[in-house]
Amino acid sequence: MTRLTKRKEMQINVVKGRDMAILGQGKVARINFKKVFNGTYGASDFIAMTKNFQAIIVEDIYQISMRDSNLARRFILFVSLAGLTSKIDECYNHKVKLYATSEKGLDELFTMDGSKNSEEMFMIHRCISRLKEMQSQKYLQELHQLDPSSNIN
After folding, report:
1. Which string of DSSP letters, residue by residue, matches the chain?
2. How far is residue 3's CA from residue 69's CA, in Å, rounded to a whole number?
3. Beta-carbon contacts of residue 100 (< 8 Å; ≥ 6 apart)
4. Rounded CA gap, 96 and 143, in Å?
5. For residues 143 and 86, what is the distance between their CA atoms, to the nearest angstrom?
6. pLDDT in tens, 59-115
7. In angstroms, what is the C-alpha Rg of the chain?
8. Mutual orientation of helices 118-133 and 69-79 as an angle, nearest 10°?
9. Is 38 exposed, middle or buried (0-12, 13-18, 19+ CB in 10 A)?
10. What's the pLDDT tens digit per position in 16-39?
11. For burial by CB atoms within 10 Å, which of 16, 27, 49, 66 has the most?
């Protein structure tokens, strides 16, 4: 994966007056799971990533405990922004190709740690479902969408 995205820092615009630094080359970004999802990134950062990159490589994903709800919610938000009023699924709707290195498979990615919160369970199932669909041949053949509502590439 190193050849795919040489460690070149790029600046992308998040909102007027605020940029974010991200490793990437051309239309491929490379992010570290712990740094991004345990950090201060949020919805506007994730939206900027999906608009600027056709593919995103997420490195070193480890099993996500629902005890660490901030990390879990940020990752779920990144994959499918289900909590926003506009109900946008950013990576999915923009047809971003998501590649990852992980110590666990998709069905073992989250651990509930005794939580019975039905909203969290729904969000986890939705996220895993999106990730599985994003592996399909049909999804992988879709073109990157800059603005999914207008169907313009």
Report:
1. -TTTS-S-EEEEEEETTEEEEEEEETTEEEEEHHHHHTTT--HHHHHHHHHH-SEEEEEEE-PEETTSHHHHHHHHHHH--TTSTT---HHHHTT-EEEEEESS-GGGSEE-TT---HHHHHHHHHHHHHHHHTTSHHHHHSPP-SBTTTTB-
2. 34
3. 33, 57, 58, 59, 61
4. 8
5. 22
6. 999 999 988 888 988 898 888 764 443 334 778 888 899 999 998 999 999 998 877
7. 15
8. 40
9. middle
10. 889 999 999 889 999 999 999 998
11. 49
Sequence letter at residue 31: I
Tokens of 101: 């290195």
Look up tokens 């994730």; give the residue.
46
Pairwise CA distance, residues 4 & 86, whole Å: 33
Sign of torsion over alpha carbons 97, 71, 41, 126: positive
Q: Which two tokens stand for residue 61?
A: 């994903």
**pTM across the whole model:** 0.85
